[in-house]
Model the fold of this input.
Amino acid sequence: MSTVQETQTLIPAGTWSADRAHSSVQFAVRHMKIVTVQGRFLDYEATLQGGDQPTLRGAIRTASASTDDEQRDGHLNSPDFFDVERYPEATIESTSIEPGRIVADVTLRGVTFPVEFEATFFGPDTDPWGNERVGLQLDGEVDRTQFGISWNAPLPGGDFLLDDTVKLTSHISFVRQAG
Done:
């Protein structure tokens, strides 16, 4: 198994596409200051362009958010949160990629902010079927209110139901595309 790549070229030259069967895009937020509720996006795409100046681009279909609770997922789709009718996609586009760190413009609900992610690169390696792969783990945080997601409910003790900080985590297996 290949180890984390820490050389000048993080991602070998070429175009690499996310393999959703071996990847995940997740989010997490504290609920009532006592538990973290986790969710994931089921419909997304991501592309890495490798070489000396690598880039990362991705899109998430916001209506694909799943927290394993139908009522909560419906609320996430509403104008209180993702407003999926007006904003069906959230996007990420890197502005800087270096060992251990990716800075990217994240656009959600039509609002764009730069976000710094801890980045761990794996590979390259070849799977048993001859496909060349690289892996990427991203960990970051956003303040949901910056993107216009400010819905909340007061708690009797004076606090609020949801934290404003949302943790983002992605584990993505990329496959090199032919050509």
Observations:
- Residues 1-8 have pLDDT under 50 and may be disordered.
- Residues 14-176 form a domain with the Lipocalin fold (CATH 2.40.128.110).
